Amino acid sequence: MTRDEIRDLAIKIACAKFNVDRSEATEATSFIDDLVDDFNVAALVELVISLEDNFGVEISEEALANIKTIGDAIEFVESERKRYYAAGSS
What is the arithmetic mean of pLDDT over 63-81? Predict the structure, then answer.
């Protein structure tokens, strides 16, 4: 999966979870500041589950603390996928 594919899918997932138009979301979009009107823990949990399911990664609480924007999520997924494939897994 290319970075562009990861980006497009991450944005699609975020827009679906937060009911936001695609034109309103970029890599700089903050999950909390830009996508959530009222702090919605359930929506954030659903977002994490969707990211994990769609990208085959596990997002720890420590990692989640550093994922503030869509771009952060993309970087995390890329990093995890590179580490997974570098370890010889397929």
Answer: 94
Domain that residue 63 falls in: 3-86
Model pTM score: 0.84
What is the full DSSP assignment across 38-62? S--HHHHHHHHHHHHHHHT----HH
The CATH number of the domain holding residue 13 is 1.10.1200.10
Q: Are the C-beta atoms of residues 85 and 22 closer than 8 Å to each other?
A: no
Residue of 21, 37, 53, 72 with catalytic role? 37
Q: Is 37 a catalytic residue?
A: yes
What total number of domains does the chain contain?
Answer: 1
